[in-house]
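Practice record 12: protein with magnesium ion.
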Amino acid sequence: MAKAKTKFVCQNCGYVSPKYLGRCPNCGVWNQMVEEVEQTTAKASATPSRRVSDLESKPVKIGDVSFEREPRIKTDMDELNRVLSGGIVPESLILIGGDPGIGKSTLLTQVSGQLQKTGGKVLYVSGEESASQIKMRADRLGIKGDNLYIYPQTDMSYIRQTIDDMKPDFLIIDSVQTMDEPEISSAVGSISQIREVTAELMNIAKQQNITVFVVGHVTKGGAIAGPKILEHMVDTVLYFEGDTHHSYRILRSVKNRFGSTNEIGIFEMRTKGLVEVANPSEIFLEERLADANGSAVVVSMEGTRPILVEIQSLITPTVFGNAKRTATGLDHNRVSVIMAVLEKRGNLMLQNQDAYLKSTGGVKLDEPAIDLALAMSIASSYKNTGIPGTDCFVGEVGLTGEVRRVNRIDQRVNEAEKLGFKRIFIPKNNLGDWSKNNKIQIIGVSTVSDAMNKIF
Ligand code: TYD
Ligand code: MG
C-alpha cells in the first residue's frame, strides 16, 4: 500500500505547507501547523467542493430577477429578532460563537422550543450531549412539544440521511467542531473538517430549504475556532459574550447578509434559562453610587439603541516604578490618549498617577463618543470631586482637547431624559442638530477644560 501523503495545515488561516513549520509564513502565528492526511478524492481541493449555485445558472438583468420578499420568522425573543434585523431569514445559515458555558446551547434550545410551537419541525443535532442531558435542560426551560427532535450524532452521513427522511424546517448543529465528515480523513475539529462540514450545511440550507443554526467554539483569543473562511461561508455570524461571573449576556451580530450588524441583544441567565433584558440602561446603572468620585455616565449607541453605562475611574499616586494603567471594558489605547490630553490640555498632573478604569456591567464600550465621559470620570477621581448623579455625557475628544460632534444626538438625549437624568453635556457643535424641546438641560461644551469648568 502506498504511504498516505500528509500535509501541514495552519489551523489559524488555512495555509498549507508540505513540511512542518513552527511559524505560519502566511499569518505569522506560532505552533498552529497540524499534520493532516492529503485527500486523493476531488474533495481535496482547497475550496469547498460543493457550490450553492448549479452549472445551469446564467447571468440575468437585475431588473428581471423575480423574488418574493421572504417574511422573516419572528421568535418570541425580541432581543434575538433585533440582532437578526427583524427575525430569522428562512433558509439562512446562522453561526453562533461564544465561550464555553456562556449559554449557546441554552439559547438554541429555547429558540427551538419556540420555533416548533409555530408548527415547524426542528431537528436538534448534538455532538456534545446525550439525549437525556438535552431533555434535562429542556425540562428546566419548560419546553414541551411534538415537533422538536433530539438527535445525538456526529457523523455527517447519518445526519444527511436523517434530514432526507425527516425533512425538518430547522436544523440545529451543536457544534460544528464535533461534526465528522467521514469522507475527510483529518481529525474531527481540524480545519479541513470544519470547512467541509460547513460547506455541507450551507448546501443543506440552500437546496433543501432548511434554516440552519450552527454553534461554533471560540479560541482563547475569542475568535471562532477554525479559519476565518468559516465566517465567510455562512450568512450570519453572532457572538454570544459576557463574563461567566455576571449573569448578563450580550448577543452581538458581527456579520449579517440580510441586515445591519452592530446590533446587540441583552439577556440575563436565570435558573430557568435566558430572559430578555428590555431596558438595559436601568440595569447597568442599578448599583451606581450617585455622586461618587470617579463615576461618570455615558450615553453610548449600541447599534441603533442608546444605552447608558457608568464609567468608573480610580486615580491614585504611583508608589513605585512606572505608573500603572488598567482598563476593563474600555480600549486601553483610548484611555492612554485621553489621559495624555487631560495632562496637556486640562493641566492635570496624571503622569505620576496609577489609573484603573472600567465600564460597569461587563459591557464593552468602543465608540469615540464615550471620550468625554471617560475624561470627566478620570478628572473627577483625580480631583476627588464627585459629579452629580443626574449628569451624563456624550462627545468625542480630539488631541487638541476639543470636544467633537457625535452622531444620533437626539436619540441619546431622549434616552437620557427617559431615564431621569437632569443634565446632559454634549459637544457644542451638536447643539443646533435638533429642535425638540427637552425637559433635560442640554449643555454644550467646546473643550475638555470648558467641560471641567462647568462641572467642578
Ligand atoms: P450552556 O447553554 O450549556 O452553555 P454552552 O452551550 O455555551 O457551553 O449553558 C451553560 C451554563 O448556563 C451553565 O453554567 C448553567 C447555566 N444555566 C443556567 O444558569 N440556567 C439554565 O436554565 C440553564 C439551562 C443553564
Ligand atoms: Mg453547549
